[in-house]
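Example record

One chain of 255 residues, shown exactly as stored in the release files.
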Amino acid sequence: MNAPAPIPAAGAAPSREAFEARLRRIGEERYHDLHPFHRRLHGGECSPDEVRAWVINRWHYQSRIPMKDAAFLSRVTDADLRRRWRSRIEDHDGGVEEGGGIRRWLALARAVGLDPDYVESGAGVMPAMRFAVDAYVRFVRDMPLLDAVAASLTEMFAPKIHAERIEGLLKHYDFADETSLAYFRKRLAEAPKDVDFGLNWVLDHADTAERQDAAAAALIFKTDVLWAQLDALWHGYVEGRIPPGAWRPGGGMLP
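Predicted structure tokens for this chain:
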């Protein structure tokens, strides 16, 4: 007769495998690849101005990623963690003269007819987009390190959306080519590298049920940040309710 299974101690964490499955379910249920704006974009249904609005507003998120990571590093006392994390800043900022994700995003802006200087200024960003992104930066700056790392794990789900985006944009939009889509091509290689380290760090450090709950809540928060950005774009540019101060079609264009 088999011995009864041991009863977990009070507060004991579920297994590493069960916790990882829980994190992945969050992406399956809440990642912004499910949002109707992305389905509209990838399906070729966005107007040129809807695409431009997405590029302008998403710029605010892209530009704040290295700032978010710098804020995170400023609190890390573990030198090994700092060494592993700092490549994220380099991936987005690039060198002094070349490279980097934010420059590749500005190449996309130019391809859709926008003046990169206008986009980089942030002048046309919607208030709701600004609030959502800045809330994420504050979260990473202020919350426990485990929560901050867990919030970055939306990268687990990013390669799928980048692949869908590349395929959809190339199929449906004249501006799409290897130069304008270079940001997404590069992230296909960068995101899995970031996830490999970040996921294992979270799995190692979320060693109680309470810490697992906190990490899962942080990941949900980040999916909410991404979803809120697309809600704002849909409200403003699909439904035509552009808020005061946000970009209006015809502005910020190349000559």
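Notes: The two ends are 82 Å apart (CA to CA).
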